[in-house]
């Protein structure tokens, strides 16, 4: 009885801590979403699906170069900084800032020199060479921003990250609106550059408020000696993240080749709703989850409690989110874009069910990062990405957006199972009741999709929301 009470107390403490971090980012993420909605809505209204598609292709290209050249600086640095004492954290912080500049300049040079090649690969013509060349500052400012954020996150100042992102997103949106109105399609590359600049500037401002004296005065050899361990993990993470970005890039290019840029725009709208906006919940919780897991990674008991708690908490949250998406899907598309983007609704309605197994795999895979098992994480992620790309190509070719939605669900079910098996392989297990919550979450998601498909959104709301809303509220309050 005492043990049960102690476990409940630990879980309640963890819930309070996680929800506190989630609250710190909640308002900021809502603001981020609002600004993203404004930009996406204006692009859809003033430029149309072709503008949304062009924005997606240019963004994925610059992101691919940035990820490939940054060597996962932020993720690997956070792990080291979270576990370091104050003196070593200051030393590592200066080294991370130096690497941000070095890697960013390399990425910008590659973006500029490879502009014509990127245009040919993406569009089959060199007509967009100038647009890619304009994006060359993005890798530099992205790397600087990542270095600043890694220092802030590693020191546990999550509210500073939230404020920096809020100011960057709002200011870049205010400037982007007149650019989009006057320049239309030509405004897309400058708007992408503008956002990366604002993120770098604001992250630097909030980092300097607490870490103003960080610098590195040593030689390059000493810089490498101090951070080589960090980059060994970073290289593995880079392989994994570059594979994900490459997959998105290749799939968008495939749709552009077999269909048109408008179809890419419809796909990007669905992808943003299913992946990006839902992913904001994951990224908010990861700000607190990843450093905490890294701190206690050498204790199997603590690791099991932390991972299990994160799975249970996230599963309840995303199960409710799935139902809300299914009820308000058409309204969301019309608010965020416009009526012709309803073409992507079959993808959204089916693909949204994939977020339940996705949240499970997210919690298990972060264990590998925190434990420094970079090679295993990379191989797992590359295998998952290859599987996802294959399933998506088959699904879209066979059944359009409906087939794509089904492929998403199958993909993340397989990935969740794989991450669980690897977690077990390292001798770890989840707490009692975790599997039951996972299966209940899957049952809610799949049955809600079926009700929406056969009976409509009103029945979906009537059958699920009256009991699911108070249940999730009660679970979060425990």
Largest sheet properties: none
Overall structural class, as computed from helix and strand content, comes to: mainly alpha
Number of strands: 0
Categorize the overall geometry.
globular
Give the CA-CA distance, first to last residue.
18 Å
Unreliable parts: 1-11
Structurally, how many domains make up the residues? Answer: 2
Order of helix and strand elements from N to C terminus: HHHHHHHHHHHHHHHHH
Multimerization state: single chain
Strand content range: under 5%
The level of helicity is over 70%
Chain-averaged pLDDT:
84
Rg from alpha-carbon coordinates: 22 Å
Total of DSSP H or I helical runs spanning 4+ residues? 17
Would you mind describing this structure in some detail?
The protein is mainly α and 478 residues long. The protein has 2 domains: 7-25 and 259-478, no CATH class; 47-228, no CATH class. The chain has helices spanning 2-46, 49-70, 73-83, 86-113, 115-123, 129-134, 137-154, 158-183, 188-208, 220-258, 261-295, 300-336, 345-351, 355-370, 374-425, 434-455, 457-477.
Short recap of the structure:
This protein has helices at about 1-45, 50-70, 75-85, 85-115, 115-125, 130-135, 135-155, 160-185, 190-210, 220-260, 260-295, 300-335, 345-350, 355-370, 375-425, 435-455, 455-475. It has about 475 residues and is mainly α. It has 2 domains: about 5-25 and about 260-478, no CATH class; about 45-230, no CATH class.
Keywords:
478 residues, mainly alpha, 17 helices, globular, disordered N terminus
